[in-house]
Specification:
About 55% of the residues lie in helices and about 20% in strands. The chain is of the alpha+beta class. It has a six-stranded mixed barrel with strand order 2-3-8-5-7-6, surrounded by four helices.
């Protein structure tokens, strides 16, 4: 049966009546939306509530958008790196693998492995017209390499298939080609570090290669130092006979690479080292993840500041509603109910701000490829200039796990901010509050 306080503040229907909503919720809702024609003090409290809502909304929206953009950058960089690097790599202990075909067949028995490609990797120097550059030479089989890497998608000139055994063709990274000032069909001299021992001296091994292609992945590490030749030509130049440096593997799921690399030690019956892309680029991806976590903490402070504005809102509301609190106490409201009223008031402010922030942040994150170009056109600027950054468009990848985390943490902050003012309201003495009324 409803208490006197409930009947005074919520609809009742005789003895059999029921409360449509708890009176704590109704009173908290009424305090949140103070009427415009109320006194100046109430209007000011309502204004502070609005500022708190907007602050929470802006903070949450900023968090969602920034984390989505960082996820997009991480995905874009990962795609570019794995367009050249392999998901899993099986290499010989001494840098050479003699039975690579058997290793590839053993690795293919794993259900996650889709393709395998042998490679030869060694250091070298490229020379053209008195310009010399150190480079990383990778010998590949074009048809097999196309299955484990995405060079075909990044070829600016020529094709990877133009590398043919015995013709000594070479495909250069775009920055490496610019540094050497070479173009298609120019002949460059490759100098191998292993020399020829003669009675007179140790002479370096030289071989001319014709430029048959130029690629641009968008990662300076590869575009400035990587050169591709045919596997047989690399074996001939570096005197490896039928041996290779290792086997590159492509998986169904690149995120399973660490687990697959561990399990491949049981599949591969050879003296080999099995590594995955998370180990070969561990420092880079760890730095990106740390930066994302730091940005989350920094931007969360914006939400925290807005959430704790609720404290000042509720403190002023408690001071303004002392008489109301005293009347409710005399009608039978418990201290817990009084505390609940102001907790609900603060929670409603936080909930509305969170809803606006999530709606705005998700909408902006999903449409950032439209919004950012519109801002650039309106202001006549470009945030990511093509001549400076490889990624000229602002990428975005919305992850709902991030949205849920942001929403949960922000809502907890708003609830924590309501506790102290609400507790002070529940401790109010009715006699003291009504003394001068």
């Amino acid at each position: 049966m409803p208490t006197p306080a409930q009947c005074a503040l919520a609809p009742c229907a005789g003895v059999s009546g029921f409360v449509l909503m708890s009176y704590e919720f109704l009173v908290g809702l009424r305090y949140t939306r103070s009427k415009r024609q109320a006194q100046g003090r109430n209007r000011f409290i309502s204004f502070i509530s609005m500022v708190s809502m907007l602050g929470i909304a802006l903070g949450v929206a900023a968090l969602i958008v920034v984390l989505s953009v960082m996820n997009g950058f991480q995905k874009e960089l990962r795609t570019r790196i794995l367009g050249v690097a392999s998901h899993v790599q099986v290499s010989g202990f001494d840098g050479e693998l003699s039975n690579w075909q058997r290793v590839a067949d053993d690795a293919a028995k794993h259900p996650q492995v889709r393709f395998a490609a042998p490679f030869v990797q060694a250091q070298g120097m490229l020379s053209y017209d008195q310009t010399v550059r150190g480079t990383l030479i990778r010998g590949v089989v074009p048809d097999a390499e196309d299955k484990v890497a995405d060079f075909a998608q990044h070829m600016r000139f020529g094709r990877l298939g133009d590398l043919r055994a015995g013709e000594f063709g070479i495909v250069l990274g775009a920055d490496l080609a610019r540094a050497l000032r070479v173009s298609m069909n120019d002949k460059v001299t490759l100098i191998a570090p292993q020399g020829l021992v003669t009675p007179a001296a140790i002479l370096p091994r030289l071989k001319q290669f014709r430029v048959v292609g130029i690629f641009e992945v968008g990662m300076y590490e590869y575009d400035s130092s990587l050169a591709l030749v045919h596997l047989n030509d690399a074996q001939t130049l570096y005197r490896m006979e039928d041996r290779v440096s290792g086997v590159r593997l492509k998986l169904d799921d690149l995120f399973e690479a660490p687990r697959v690399a561990r399990e491949l030690t049981a599949f591969v019956d050879a003296d080999a080292v099995v590594s995955d892309w998370t180990r070969s680029h561990a420092n880079f991806f760890r730095a990106v993840q740390i930066e994302k976590n730091v940005m989350f903490i920094i931007l969360l402070l914006i939400v925290a500041v807005a959430a704790f504005n609720i404290v000042s809102t509720l403190v002023m509301a408690v001071q303004d509603k002392q008489a109301d609190i005293a009347i409710l106490r005399t009608l039978g409201a418990s201290p817990g109910s009084i505390m609940g009223i102001f907790v609900i008031q603060g929670a409603l402010i936080g909930f509305i701000g969170l809803a606006l922030g999530v709606l705005g942040g998700v909408s902006l994150a999903l449409n950032i490829d439209v919004v950012v170009p519109a801002i650039e056109r309106a202001l006549g600027i470009q945030f990511l200039a093509k001549d400076v950054y490889y990624i000229s468009d602002l990428p975005s990848e919305l992850q709902w796990a991030d949205v849920i985390t942001i929403t949960s943490v922000s809502f907890v902050l708003t609830l924590v901010a309501t506790l102290y003012p609400s507790w002070r309201a529940s401790r109010l003495n009715p006699a003291e509050a009504l003394r001068y009324e």
